[in-house]
Amino acid sequence: MQQRLGQQIILFPLPLQGHLNPMLQLANLLYSKGFSITIVHTEFNSPNPANHPNFTFHAIADGLKGSQASTQDSVVLVSLLNINCFTPFHDWLSELLSSKISDGESITCLITDAIWHFAQGVADRLNIPRLVLKTSSVSSFAGFAAIPLLLEKGYLPKRESLLEEPVPELPPLRVKDLPVIKTHDPEDFYGLMSSVERETNASAGIIWNTFEQLEETSLNKLRQEIGIPIFPVGPLHKFFTASSSRLLAQDLSSISWLNQQATNTVLYVSFGSLATITETEFLEIAWGLANSKQPFLWVVRPGLVCNSEWLEPLPKGFLKMVGGRGKIIKWAPQQEVLAHPAIGGFWTHSGWNSTLESLCEGVPMICFPCIGDQMVNSRYVSHIWKVGVSLEKRLKREEIEREIRRVMVENEGQEMRERIMYWKEKLNSCSRQGGSSYNYLESLAAYISSF
Ligand code: UDX
């Protein structure tokens, strides 16, 4: 067992699945380097301490009341949490800092999700270094950081007539790819992003769930613009799986079902933890899957379809009609699913974790970006790395069927499969000894120890 260094790190994840996973993976990595770990978390979407016996957990009051505790409008949710958590977090940390000094173990630094912009003010007041974890791509950060310029130049708010226009300041993005999150008042979103960017720049460094070769151009550009150290140590799931930080129960029968399917034949369909679709879109997806005649494993998360509990809008007898060719579940052990030899394609919402997980397993993608950074990720998958296609038009069953066949059975899909093997190899070797992420992790540990 790795000897403890007597240095404790406080990690504060954002309570959303796609943010909790990488933060707890990072916590495991830092624990393996000898640091003691305390996870501070909100009551909303709290992680399960029983899955992490080596860590200390502390819940702070998040002040969410009734319907506020919902991911329906993530901008409203995280803006509110940034306000509500300031005092409880400050008071708890202040007390901890004084008590630990007498215990002998030093608290080295704070690592918070970048979206917790309020935490920089707390860190400054208490005189403790704060590093941030970025759970989305570097390329999407560039898009978020450019929001003031994009507003000034009239690219934002997006106008229907300009959607296909390139944005010369942010190649290879078009107006439709710019990262925005719909909320009741767009000013709230712009304000939130500007606070996140300002406080990220004021932090002691950025830990990024990406890796050097994948986003080299964006990383190099950022390094010229930003005066703080950057540690691209990803993909974090390569070191520790996301199973222990899941918020929903995984349906393990998906693996025994995949065991009965032929190699590279199954399309895995999942739109992550936040995206929602309308009932009409849900039905087009169902018929597109059925008409494609390909086997499919489809995650329909409760709440995915607006105004439905789960599968109520599905036509009666749908699953019987597709026979053994389709399986619908509520939540998958996604990493295991993507690593299964039966999987031949991934229809994804292009969340950054899902994109990295798919690249690591060499699974080509059908991208259906829904919010924020997902539009940027989709553009890179389809146009830069060329390991997937993008479903950009309105969801229609005929188009869905066509795109599924393109990726699963046509030559084009085979070419993507060959190209993605290059990234699979790079992603797998970067975390091995001597690889770029391995080296960045070493320098991150040394940097933290120097505080
Ligand atoms: C959103 C953003 O789009 C993402 O880019 C950002 O970094 C975090 O917030 P989300 O909708 O949660 O993300 O998607 P994604 O980033 O792909 O994360 C989902 C996680 O849940 C992945 O680690 C995936 O493996 C896991 N998952 C998903 C499961 O374990 N089972 C499932 O059935 C579906």
From TrEMBL:
Pfam families, sorted: UDPGT
Keywords, ordered alphabetically: Transferase
Annotated SUPFAM superfamilies: UDP-Glycosyltransferase/glycogen phosphorylase
InterPro entries associated with the record: UDP_glucos_trans
GO molecular function: quercetin 3-O-glucosyltransferase activity; quercetin 7-O-glucosyltransferase activity
Cited PANTHER family: GLUCOSYL/GLUCURONOSYL TRANSFERASES (PTHR11926), UDP-GLYCOSYLTRANSFERASE 76B1-LIKE (PTHR11926:SF1464)
UniProt similarity note: Belongs to the UDP-glycosyltransferase family.
Protein name: UDP-glycosyltransferase 76B1-like
Source lineage: Eukaryota, Viridiplantae, Streptophyta, Embryophyta, Tracheophyta
